[in-house]
Amino acid sequence: MRTETGPEGRRESLFAVASLLAAVAIWGTFFPLVAVLLRTWDPLPSAAARLVCGAVVLVVMVLLRQGWRMLAAPLPWRRVLILSFFGIAVFNLATTWGVAYSGPISASIVATAGPVVAAFMQRVMYGTRLRREILVASLLAVAGGVCVAFAHGDGPAEFRGGEILILCASTSWLWYSMKIQDWFPGESQGAVTAVTYVVGAIGVTLLAASLSVLGISPDRVDLSAPSLLLLLVIGVSSTAMAVTFWLYGVARLGITVAAVYGNMVPLVTVLCSAVVGIAPRPLELLGGAIVIAGVVLVQVRARTRA
Question: Dihedrals φ, ψ of 80, to 5°?
C-alpha cells in the first residue's frame, strides 16, 4: 500500500476514493445484470464468455497505455498461475453460480462480509493491527446486511444456498487483491491483471468446452443481439473497468479500507434491481444507509489522521 503525505498524498487519496466509488457503482449493477443474463445462459459458459470479454479489454487497455513490451515482460509464472486460478477462475465461477442459486440482492448482501474477511486476512497474513473505525464500520456493514436480509419479513431475502459461494468468491477476490500487490510490487498492476485474466479466461473456457463435449455440464447460450450486448456490457464494465478502478484504490488505501467502500455495492444493487423489476423494501434502504454510515466513518477518520 502506498502512503504519501502533503497535498500530493491527499490528492492521490482522493483519486483512490473516487476509483473505489467508481468500482462500487459498476459492481452494483453486476448482480442484477448477471441475474438477467442467466435467464438465457447457463452459469459456466456465461462465466467463460464474460472473462474472455474482460481479458480482451484489459489487454487492449495495457497495449494502448504501455505498449506490447509490458505484456511481454517476464513474470514468475507459478505465481501467475496461482493468481489466475484462485483469484480469477474461482472468483468468477463462484460469483456466477452464487448469483444463479441465490438472487441479485441477497448475493450482494453477503459481500458486506468483505471488511470482516479482509480485516481477518490482514491480521492472519500480516499481523496488521485493526483500527477501531474499521472494526466499527465492519459491524455496521454486518448490521446493514442483516437488515436487508430480513427485509422480506419471512426470513433472509431469497436465501437459497448460493450465498455461500458468494462468500467464497469474496474471500478469493480479497486474497487476489492483496497478493497481486505483494507478489508483483515492481510490476505494472495493469499488465499483471491483464495476464492473470487472460490465463483465467483460457482455463475457464477450456473447462466449459470440455464439460460441454462430455455432456457433464449444460451449455445453454443465447446468441441473440440483446443477450450478446448485455454480455459485452458486463464483461467490459464489471470484469475490466471495475477491476482496474478497484486495484488502483487498494494499492493506495489498503484492502481493509477498500472492502469497507465495497459495502456500498448492495445499495447500488437494490437501486438497479428496482429498474429490472425487483423493488427495494424499507429495510433494504435502511440497511444501505447503515452501510454508508460505516463508509463515512472511515473517510472522516482518514481525513482526521491526515
Answer: -60, -45
**Please, how many CA atoms are within 13 Å of residue 101, restricted to the half-sphere of its CB?**
14
Say if residues 183 and 79 touch (Cβ distance below 8 Å): yes
- Longest Cα separation, the chain: 60
Which of 9, 4, 48 is closest to 211 using CA atoms? 48
Residue 287, amino acid: G
Which DSSP string do the residues of 161-203 spell out, in sequence order? SHHHHHHHHHHHHHHHHHHHHHH-TTS-HHHHHHHHHHHHHHH
CA distances in angstroms from 35 to 153, 217, 278, listed in the order given: 22, 19, 11
> How many C-beta atoms lie closer than 10 Å to residue 194's C-beta?
27
Torsion of CA 40, 43, 48, 49, to 10 degrees: 20
Joined grid coordinates for residue 124: 492472519
Cα 157 from Cα 146, distance rounded (Å): 10
Cβ contacts of 274 within 8 Å, gap of 6 or more = 280
The total of other beta-carbon atoms located within 10 Å of residue 246's CB is: 23
What is the pTM assigned to this prediction?
0.76
| Lowest-confidence segment of 61-70, 131-140, 158-167 by average pLDDT | 158-167
The C-alpha cell at 18 is 473516487
DSSP assigned state of 235: I
Q: pLDDT (tens digit, 9 = 90+) per residue, 60-117? A: 888 888 777 766 767 788 999 999 999 999 998 988 888 777 766 666 666 666 666 7
**Top mean-pLDDT range of 5-14, 121-130, 211-220:** 211-220
The C-alpha cell at 79 is 505465481
